[in-house]
Amino acid sequence: MIDITLDTTTVRGLAELEPTSGGLRLHRLPAWVRTQYPEPQLLGVEAQPAGAHIAVRTAASRLELDLHSTHATLRGLARPRGRGRPPAGRGRVGRANHPADGTSRG
What we know:
Helix content is 12%, strand content 27%. The protein is globular. It is built from 2 helices and 6 strands, in the order βββααβββ. It is of the alpha+beta class. A hairpin with a 2-residue loop joins strand 2 (16-20) and strand 3. Residues 89-98 and 100-106 have low confidence and may be disordered. The chain has helices at 31-36, 40-46, and strands at 11-12, 16-20, 23-27, 53-54, 62-68, 92-99.
């Protein structure tokens, strides 16, 4: 297996990636904006990875990506959870293995 480093050249649609002890945190706004406008709602929205995508070119027959999922909860609003929600106290959602031809196997 070959590991690749994810940075803003491979993860597109983001301002920056912040290294943490648990991996990378995705940011849609640069650090100077987050510092200048530390409003909680803005910071919550900018940390959502909507629009981000990984762009790699490979001859590999399989790709593996480990993800750590987060979700926002709105007080007083109950909504159903999707598949892949981690058990209580566990942050790991699972692994996505997809053939290089773009097909998906459930």
